[in-house]
Amino acid sequence: MTRLFTSNLSHLILFVGISIMIIPVWMIFASSTHTSSFINTHGLQFFLGDSFQENYLRVLLYKGGFFKEITALKMFLNSFIMATGVALLSVVTSLMAAYALVYYRTKYATFLFWLIFITILVPLELRIFPTYSVMAKLNLVNSYFGLIVPISASAIATLFFRQFYRTVPDELLESAKLDGASTWRFFIDFLVPLSRTMIVAMFIFMFVFGYNQYLWPLLVTSSEQYWTVVMGLKMMSGSIVHRFAFVIMSMVPPILIIIILQKHFIKGVFQDK
Amino acid sequence: MKKVQFKSNYSQYLFLAPQLGILLIFLYWPIIQTFRDAFTIQDAFGISTQFAGIDNFLFIFSDPAYLTAFKFTIIYSFVITLITGAIGLLLAVQANNVMHGKSAYKTLLIWPYAIAPAVVGVMANYFFSERFGLLYHLFNDLWGFNWYESVYDAYIYVIIAGSWKQISANFIFFLAGLQAIQVSVIEASMIDCKSSFRRFWTITFPLLMPTTFFLIIINITYAFFDTFGIIDTTTIGAPSGETRTLVYKAYMDGFRGLDLGSAGAQSIMMMLIVLFITIFQFRYIEGKIHYN
User: Fold this and answer.
1) Average pLDDT over residues B22-31
2) CATH number among 1.10.3720.10, 2.40.110.10, 2.60.40.1500, 3.40.1440.10, domain B56-288
3) Which of A181, B23, B83, B88 is the most exposed place for a label (fewest CB within 10 A)?
4) What's the pTM?
5) Which of A12, A14, A120 to mutate to test the interface with B (most CBs of B within 10 A)?
6) Residue A153 is nearest to which of B23, B116, B118, comparing CB atoms?
């Protein structure tokens, strides 16, 4: 009896928690399917209206911004390029750097580790103006390169890969060495396939990290052609329902990725079996 | 460390080169520049630069706006850590408790993690605007809530906006922590102790310590750095600068005020805080908790 009671109580608490998460997003979505004049007189809505298609198509295809030069569709493309670039670049460089840290015997090992570890202490927000002036000197403002590379200057993934490599049994390298595998072959043929789950987890983590950047794109893009979705939210002009629609659309890509790949993400980050 | 390794040769540096190259140009170089900014003063046109010693640091500590931002950042990190940790733990314990629907609950609670803080802020704005904000009017009817004028109401606004998505991260990590506790430990404790409430606080919670401390660090860094997008899309510091975080203030001073010396000194102060928290975690906490 008490068992049944506590179990129902658990469901109730979880239901309340989920409601707190879902209701605000649902209300913005429901409101985004009405007309602006209706929202302006009646406030936020709980039930769907009839203007879904009209509002969302207009937001995607209408040229907004200060100079009316960019559509939301282009912003999604920019965000996608930026997020994929950040994820690919940081995963590949981290995978390699962690390999050099774990699989080589050198007297500089501790120094090299700290050189990389120390970067965790200095997030981009703390070096944003100097980074900008470096970008300006290298003439990289208003480019995809400028959006991507400074965000990829992060060693978080390196630490995760290092941790993972250290759990790989020593026998693997021993037998690979007996077979005459070179350092490069061992990396490509043995270690990379073995790290698949971790690679997927880090890719998702860095993709969402790149997609969600706000301050850096704001600073490094003066041309509207390079605006991303998350920074564009504040800059886009338009009526209230179009803003609602844009907010909802901006959430869709990272949420979909997290939900679809959540098993890999959780497995990698927590290193469960 | 590994017992079997390759001997160090040029190929080791080939593997390190891509990451170190990026870090060198886009991380170490800007950090050195930050230190140069912090210890120099530029004239208004950026033509001449003079060594200033610790003047920039003395300046920020004599600036009441900096002390206000400092106080707010401490309060904000503390409250966000407490609220999101407590709710995250409560939900994780319930999800670990139920027989059916565990993975459905996981999916239904994991997604807010993926939303950008700036997007959360824009959304919160709709619920807290005077025009049609439901929460604004609800709180206004209850106690005359008005974040445009009252500091405490502005705190409530940015705390709700800042906590919302972070509950999700706390939930995921606590649930993983709970699932890592061995069933035999829990079964043994069930024999010894009938009260599930006491069992939780004397057995389960101490075993969750590593997760708890990890989350404290995660939540503090979130409140320090990631909330920029939330502040910039909600109060923008309203009523009059009381809800500016340290990162927000440094950005405003550097970008709007073009005072790179002060922005640099503020960045270095924040680096010291992060360094302090990290050392504290490694030295003090890691030594005192039990890993299973």
Assistant:
1) 92
2) 1.10.3720.10
3) A181
4) 0.91
5) A14
6) B23
